[in-house]
Specification:
The chain is α/β, with parallel strands linked by helices. The chain contains 26 helices and 27 strands. The strands form 7 sheets. An 8-stranded parallel sheet has the order 22-19-15-12-11-27-26-23. α5 packs parallel to α13 and α10 crosses α13.
Length: 701
């Protein structure tokens, strides 16, 4: 089929052939690459007939014969509908969530569509006309914000709060078995609140693969609808006596192994995870032997089909692997690939206890996370936990299996080539199909937002650029052969705003990297906070003054993918790049260190001019620059300043080194101090007091 037909179909599908590289060069996606991506999207174009049929399918999505199941709008603004020929001349009723009804009539000529009357309250309302029903998702004009979280307090209209960021798995406490858990998180949250923190942002706690404990990156989950069972504190499940009985049942060395894992500097995920799951299985057996639990039954009822699907997937996945068979669901027998298939029902009946075990795990994880959020709010935090929503879920995982009609099969989320990754990146994560999202009323997306907000006072959306476009790469292909696919950004922003208000939770978007022109303005108008990192806040060769930082983004010293302040100052990141041969093309170790020395002097000068530093540039091993950096970041007008725990402590190592898998201990580092004394360390307390000097709940209320 001609390249021209492929390009026409690609444009209709929202695929861009032209894009701009990180260094500003115009680039083009080859027709062959577009053809492969179109095939994965469900629009094949190898033959003339295929191209014709695919174009017809795309055209039908916006034709006058299709009534969308959901439309988004904004409070106080008329909502345009159509053209939908079937609605012409019909009377309609809009049933608002509170029961009030708005009546009207569609014009006889719907060729140009029609405008519905403005609705003055947000919510999911129903439009009824003839035998048609459309959900109207009417959103507030912006997301729930930091100032809204302080509503009812005697505070300024321009809030300046602070919080801590923590890798949940890194938390250390006696009895944790080698993995940070929700009990440790509750302890941290209470301690942070006592110091004046308004929030604690956590690493993703999405469900992983319990049968494959070697996969532990929090950004490569099995499902973003459920929680990581490895963060459950087993002692909190049925109490201390039950925990002791479980350990006794596992043998004499169980306690010894737990104690050994707790002392390790790095998490041994496979060993610690296997032991924790073994303990939880023993506890579940004890639970099964008792009377039915009304709370658990209510949790199962509320979880509905989504919980059932996830539990069935976990059981199926484990069963396949135990038999030495392929765990990737797309390679399973046909009867097991469809969650609604009779074979899946039969398997669930035959393995009811195993399915119940995974439902039980989700119940316990939800109780743990909910308890941590409650601890923060009870201690006076206006926000509490800020959850982290990963950009995608593993294409071989539970969410991709259970939501096949809305998640693209055969494409992975990634990034195009740039200065640091000259061949681009493919992350193995599945993405929602924008066409299926619209056709199915954004059901799976809304479901995911609700799961994210369920036990938190805020959410960080990873790679928020994906609201507008995603770089998608065919499975098995180099990331260079991907393309940008456009997404319905306004619809997604409205749904985020609506759900944020329903859950009274702030929203932060990770907007780092190459940001399209005007994108940050769109986020700001939607009330979705961006992220500004100290090292990137520059104009040419000059670090921006604190008062030059924006008010529509949070401020932070660093992120999990970047060097800590101590590590940056000490050149620990350069040590790693030299050791692993990860320098930019053409840059030597000496070049990198020379540039870092120059950057250190520039940053120190900026901090001196801001009144946060004094004297000469300190030695590379000094932590004086860290204290100054905390004050510098805190002095910005950002409504929320976030200090990662690694910087609060002064650690030189970063949690993750992008571009590496096994050659750097990603997602394995444990904090050196137990969480119950962490905030009391004099150096940590001193840095938190710097934050309290300019931003504090107590100062403002």
């Amino acid at each position: 089929m001609s390249d021209q037909h492929v390009l026409e179909l690609a444009r209709a599908a929202g695929l861009a052939q032209d894009w701009t590289s990180a260094n500003g060069q115009p680039m083009k996606v080859s027709p062959d690459a577009l053809r492969t991506i179109l095939e994965a999207l469900g629009y094949p174009c190898t033959t003339e007939q295929q191209c014709h049929d695919s174009m017809a399918a795309l055209t039908a999505l916006s034709s006058g014969d299709i009534i969308p199941p959901l439309l988004t709008g904004t409070v106080g603004h008329g909502l345009r509908i159509g053209p939908v020929n079937r609605l012409a001349g019909l009377n309609f009723h809009i049933e608002l969530e509170d029961g009030e009804q708005v009546d009207g009539r569609f014009p006889d000529d719907m060729s140009s569509g029609a405008e519905l009357p403005a609705i003055d309250r947000f919510g999911y309302h129903r439009l009824l006309a003839g035998d048609s029903e459309i959900t109207l998702a009417i959103a507030p004009p912006r997301c729930f914000g930091v100032a809204d979280a302080l509503a009812g307090t005697d505070t300024t209209a321009d809030p300046r709060l602070w919080g801590l960021g923590v890798q949940l798995y890194s938390l250390r406490r006696q009895g944790d078995g080698g993995i940070g858990d929700f009990t440790g998180l509750s302890t941290l949250v209470r301690a942070a609140a006592a110091k004046g923190a308004a929030a604690v942002a956590i690493s993703p706690v999405h469900a992983m693969f319990s049968a494959d404990v070697h996969r532990f990156s929090p950004y490569g989950p099995s499902s973003r609808l459920f929680l990581n069972a490895l963060h459950i504190d087993p002692a909190s499940v049925l109490g201390g006596n039950a925990m002791n009985a479980a350990l006794d049942a596992l043998g004499n060395d169980a306690r010894t192994r737990l104690a050994h894992l707790e002392q390790e500097e790095l998490i041994d995920w496979p060993v610690a995870a296997e032991l924790r799951l073994s303990i939880l299985r023993k506890l579940y057996a004890q639970f099964q032997s008792g009377a039915a639990d009304a709370e658990f039954e209510e949790f199962r009822r509320a979880g509905g089909g989504a919980l059932q699907d996830h539990a069935r997937f976990e059981a199926l996945h484990a069963w396949r692997l135990a038999r030495g068979e392929d765990g990737y669901w797309q390679h399973w027998p046909e009867g097991l690939r469809n969650p609604r298939a009779a074979d899946v029902d039969a398997f669930a009946r035959q393995h009811a206890s195993e399915v119940g075990f995974h439902e039980f795990l989700q119940w316990q994880a939800a109780r743990g996370l909910q308890g941590a959020q409650r601890a923060g709010r009870d201690a006076g935090m206006p926000i509490g936990l800020i959850a982290d929503l990963a950009v995608g879920a593993d294409t071989g995982g539970s969410q991709a299996w259970s939501r096949q009609s809305e998640i693209i099969n055969g494409l992975s989320v990634g990034a195009p080539p740039d200065l640091l990754n000259t061949r681009g990146q493919s992350w193995g994560l599945g993405a929602f199909s924008p066409h299926a999202m619209k056709a199915k009323g954004f059901g799976a997306y809304i479901e995911m937002l609700r799961a994210t907000f369920a036990y938190a006072g805020g959410a960080r959306i990873d790679h928020v650029l994906g609201l507008g476009r995603l770089w998608l790469v065919p499975h098995g292909a180099s990331a260079e052969h991907g393309a940008y696919l456009q997404y319905p950004m306004q619809d997604l922003l409205r749904l985020i705003a609506l759900e944020s208000w329903r859950h009274r939770a702030i929203v932060i978007g990770e907007d780092l990297g190459t940001v399209p022109e005007g994108f940050d303005t769109q986020l700001a108008q939607a009330g979705l906070l961006g992220i500004r990192v100290l090292m990137f806040q520059r104009h040419g060769d000059r670090f921006l003054r604190p008062d030059e930082w924006p008010r529509h983004a949070i401020a932070t010293t660093t992120t999990h993918d970047l060097p800590t302040i101590a590590g940056w100052w000490q050149e620990r990141d350069i040590d790693w790049r030299t050791k692993l041969d990860l320098h930019e093309p053409g840059q030597s170790d000496a070049d990198a260190r020379q540039m870092r020395a120059h950057e250190r002097s520039l940053l120190w000068q900026a901090m001196k001019e801001a009144g946060q530093a004094h004297g000469d540039v300190p030695d590379v091993q000094s932590l004086a620059a860290l204290d100054a950096a905390v004050g510098f970041m805190s002095a910005t007008p950002a409504p929320l300043a976030m200090l990662p725990v690694e910087d609060a402590i002064g650690l030189p190592e970063q949690p993750n080194l992008p571009g590496t898998v096994d050659i750097h201990p990603n997602w394995r580092r444990r904090l050196p101090q137990p969480v119950d004394v962490l905030m009391d360390d004099p150096a940590v307390a001193s840095r938190l007091s710097i934050l309290n000097q300019t931003r504090s709940i107590k100062r403002q209320t």
